[in-house]
Specification:
mainly alpha; globular; disordered C terminus
Length: 272
């Protein structure tokens, strides 16, 4: 009892301090968002905070500008394809390397290579490789490059889900007479569906927000981050703030969709 009494004042003091620290960190992280969104409604032709007046003309300017729309569509196509490629490849790799042998651990570590190499070095290597195989300024080339960048996140996410769930249900299906393919499709894949959905969304935004590799290999075929960089460098109009606000809203919606899609599977596992 004395031990509990001696620790309780420390605990009571640490809890408000920790809560205040968390709030300060959240404010620091979210402060740019609170600044960007209001500036997208400013009537001035330059970025200003606090904004002057209220207008939607910068959003209209974004949707009426063919260059912005073409860059957005190009980024959406690239991100969707690269996320699909990274999710399928990464999930299969994680399943194949699910055992904790030394070889599997070394191979899993190899998938982290794109995150260990500085992105500028990786972009230079991609440029040299694409120039050799005539993939410069091509959509398939940038899809593969972005899939490689997102692959470490997919492998680590799916591998973590596999470690938590194990192979017991798939093995039980095999014992009951299911073929390896049926056990994989009807047991393993449904169990991994939430992590694969989350991996796809994460890989999508890794590709959608990527700038450095795209600047090296896309040439005049601008992606949306390249278009934003060009506007910041040359014009710096509130259109950039409008695009950033739309991206923030799209990210929040994607996270909500991911949570909604994974919730029924989790609820089905809860005991009645």
């Amino acid at each position: 009892m004395s031990t509990v009494r001696n620790r309780s004042p420390r605990t009571g003091l640490a809890t408000p301090v920790l809560a205040a620290y968390v709030v300060l960190v959240l404010v620091f992280l979210l402060m740019p968002l609170f600044l960007v969104a209001p500036m997208s409604f400013s009537q001035t032709t330059y970025l200003k905070f606090p904004p002057t007046g209220f207008t939607l003309k910068w959003y209209v300017a974004f949707f009426e500008d063919p260059a912005w729309i073409a860059a957005t569509i190009r980024s959406l196509v690239i991100a969707a394809c690269s996320a699909l490629l990274a999710t399928v490849t990464g999930a299969l790799a994680a399943i194949a390397l699910r055992r904790n042998t030394t070889t599997d651990q070394l191979l899993r570590g190899g998938f982290l290579g794109p995150q260990l190499v500085p992105v500028i070095i990786l972009a230079l290597g991609v440029l040299l490789l694409f120039s050799r195989f005539h993939l410069y300024s091509s959509i398939p080339g940038i899809v593969v490059a972005h899939a490689v960048l997102a692959l470490p996140f997919v492998v680590s996410n799916v591998a973590s889900a596999l470690r938590q769930r194990g192979d017991s249900l798939a093995q039980a299906a095999r014992v009951l007479g299911a073929s390896p393919l049926k056990a994989f499709w009807y047991v393993t894949v449904p169990l991994l569906r939430p992590s694969m959905i989350a991996s796809y969304i994460f890989a999508f935004f890794v590709s959608f927000d990527e700038l450095v590799v795209a600047m090296f290999v896309m040439g005049r075929n601008e992606t949306l981050p390249m278009r934003i960089w060009s506007n910041v460098r040359d014009d710096l109009t509130p259109v950039v703030a409008a695009v950033a606000t739309l991206l923030i809203v799209a990210t929040i919606v994607a996270l909500l969709i991911s949570e909604f899609l994974s919730r029924p599977r989790q609820a089905a596992k809860d005991p009645v």
